[in-house]
Each structure stands twice: as C-alpha cells, then as structure tokens.
Design goal:
Blueprint (H helix, E strand, L loop, with lengths): L13 H12 L6 E5 L6 H14 L5 E5 L8 H13 L6 H11 L4 H4 L6 E6 L2 E6 L7 E4 L2 E4 L8 H22 L5 E6 L6 H16 L7 E7 L13 E4 L7 H10 L6 H12 L5 H11 L5
Parallel strand pairs: 1-8, 1-9, 2-7, 7-8
Antiparallel strand pairs: 3-4, 4-5, 5-6
Helix pairs in contact: 3-6, 4-6, 8-9
Length: about 300
C-alpha cells in the first residue's frame, strides 16, 4: 500500500518517535495516544511515519485516515476507507463484506433480521395486511387461514440505504473486535477537528469507549491527532497517553532538511527558515514552497 514518501525523511520528533516505539513494543500498555496541538505543522507527517514504522519495523498492520480527506464523513465512510488497506495485511472483514455486498446489491432481506423497522397491521374485508414501513408495499397478506408472500420491492429507498450503511459500520467494529483479540492492529486518525458531530460521537463511543478503552483484553491501539482532541484520560491513565505539544525544529533539523533538498545551509538561510517556522508558523507546504523558490535553477 502507498505510504507518504516524506515519512521516510522525518528528521525530527525524536521524543515522539521513542514514545511510539514504546507503545508498539508493549502490546496492551497504552491503547490510545492523543496528539493535540494548535500548530498546523508536523502532525500528519508524524502519523505517516508512525504508519510506516508500524508496518516495516514492527510488522503491525496499520490503517490511517485523514478526516479532512474523507469524501464520506460518516461511520460507514470511515470503515469503508480503512477496510481495503487493512486487508493488505491478510486481515479479513467477513461481516462487513457480507453486509456491504448486500447493500451494493440492494438486497434488503440481509438487513431485516437486525433492522426490521416498525410494522403495521391493517384489517380490510376479512384480510389482514402486514408490512414494513420501509418497503411501502404489502409484505404478507393473510386471508382467513391462508397467507401469501408478495415479492420484495425493487426500489431502494434512502431510509434503507441509511440502515444498511449503519449495519455495515457495526459490522466493521464486530470484525475489528474479533481480529484484535489475537492480532495487533494500529489505527491512526488525523485531522480530528474535521469530524462532524455524528462521526465524532461514533468513534469516541463505539470505537474507543466500548472497544479500545474497555477492561476487556484487546490488541488494538488508536492514535488521534488534531488541533482539538476529546479528553478521555480521566480514570484511564494507564491506557491513555496525551501529547499537547510536539518537539520543535532546532538548527540541526533545519540544516539537515535543507541538505536533503539541495539548498544552501549558510547561517542566513537557516535563520530565515527558523523565523518562518517559529515566528510565522509555516506549514510544511509553505516551507517546501520557500525552499523551491530559493533553489538554484538548472540551466
């Protein structure tokens, strides 16, 4: 699977990298790491490095999602994004696959046992009619002692899609719970502040409070990063670690970065980059743009 190429170039964050290695090596000691800083620089690259290190050094399957890049910012969209990448590590999601395939094929019968919806009975001229509100059509007609099953409607409604997507999200959690009983799995969630309220509540309640942070054994570790993060530390000090700042670049980091980009490392250039980072809070994109402008043009 594709990993951010800049992850292999990470030249700073020594303390954070040491903490990550400690967390991964001690299977169940820390189940949630939160990284919450107001800065716009560094968190995404750090998570990309975490993902790469998890896979290549420790052999731990890792799935990373940046909320800001999700086209579908729902629980289903979150699960749908993670499943294909995790399958690259021979992790199976059979329950999710079953329901997602049924959803795609608009096979409503797959969802009726878990989400039948309210039903109503109508008596007319000695016939009792029963059916679900979603189909909008008669399901079974009872005439005296006889009954006949009418065919399912072929029109897939918005309400059916909503219930199907919710069931798929539940199935993802069921599969993940089963997987992490025996295998380490790392989930990395970036740009938490971009979560809409429903997705935020689902991750916090269903994924974290009812799975990763319960008293039950699990080999799941979650890393959340963003400019704001829910505080789940109270009463869970042994399971949660929180970082409220990242280590800053010193001159040695700046010099190494400029060397890697083929740019002059004279004191004036280092000072310009230092002021940009520390006084103007440059993002890495802004830093890269500045370096590109100062790079000698090839003739």
């Amino acid at each position: 699977m594709s990993i951010d190429t800049h992850a292999s170039e990470l030249i700073d964050r020594d303390d954070e990298r040491s903490l990550f290695r400690e967390i991964v090596e001690e299977a169940e000691s820390v189940r949630l790491l939160t990284i919450c800083t107001g800065e716009k620089r560094g968190k995404s690259r750090l998570l990309a490095w975490f993902e790469r290190e998890s896979q290549l050094t420790f052999g731990v399957p890792a799935g990373r999602v940046e909320i800001a890049d999700l086209k579908d910012r729902s629980a289903f969209g979150f699960a749908e994004h993670l499943v294909p990448g995790l399958k690259h590590f021979d992790l199976e999601f059979p329950t999710f696959d079953y329901f997602d395939e049924a959803r795609a094929a608009q096979e409503w019968s797959a969802f009726q046992s878990r989400s039948p919806g309210p039903r109503a009975n109508v008596v007319a001229d000695g016939a009792t009619v029963s059916g679900g509100f979603i189909s909008g059509t008669v399901g079974t007609v009872f005439q005296g002692g006889e009954h006949a099953h009418l065919p399912e409607p072929r029109v897939w409604t918005g309400r059916q899609e909503e219930i199907a997507r919710s069931r798929c999200a539940d199935a993802f959690l069921e599969d993940l719970r089963a997987l992490t009983e025996r295998r380490r799995v790392l989930l990395l969630v970036d740009a938490w502040e971009e979560c809409p309220p429903l997705l935020e509540a689902w991750i916090q309640t269903r994924l974290l409070l009812k799975h990763a942070l319960t008293d039950n054994p699990t080999r799941l570790t979650v890393i959340l990063a963003g400019q704001r993060i829910p505080d789940l530390t109270a009463g869970r000090e042994q399971l949660v670690r929180a970082l409220d700042s990242l280590s800053r670049w010193g001159d040695s980091h700046i010099e190494k970065f400029l060397e890697m980009r083929g740019v002059s490392t004279d004191p004036t250039m280092i000072d310009m980059v230092r002021r940009g980072l520390h006084e103007h809070d440059w993002t890495f994109d802004q830093l890269e743009s500045f370096v590109a402008l100062t790079k000698p043009r090839e003739r």
